[in-house]
Design a protein that fits this description.
Largest sheet: none
Order of helices and strands: HHH
Radius of gyration: 17 Å
Number of helices: 3
Distance between the termini: 52 Å
Structural class: mainly alpha
Shape: flat
Helix content: over 70%
Strand content: under 5%
Number of domains: 1
Length: 98
């Protein structure tokens, strides 16, 4: 892949990983009330999500450079902001917490 496309591709990979990670967390939390063993389900979800992200970031470090890793982390962080913003209930009022 050309050097020009490596950073955007790493950013998009981080964005996709972040969406999968935080969407998976959201689904896990909302299904805990139906789980016979909620702690087991939460732990299994965490291990699966963390292993996926860790393997992907390891791949970037191993076969890329630090700029690609930084771009992927930026995408991952943006995904967190997007998922939290779309999944959090909106509060009424004028926006102040007072």
């Amino acid at each position: 892949m050309s050097e020009l496309l490596q950073l955007p591709a790493a950013f998009m990979a981080g964005l996709l990983l972040g969406v999968l990670f935080f969407w998976g967390l959201w689904i896990t939390v909302h299904r805990l009330d139906r789980a016979p063993h909620p702690a087991r389900r939460m732990l299994a979800s965490y291990v699966l999500r963390f292993a996926l992200v860790l393997a992907a970031f390891y791949f970037l470090v191993r076969y890329g450079d630090w700029q690609q890793l930084l771009a992927a982390v930026a995408g991952f962080t943006l995904a967190r902001i997007i998922v939290v913003h779309t999944k959090m209930p909106h509060r009424g009022g004028n926006g102040s917490d007072a």
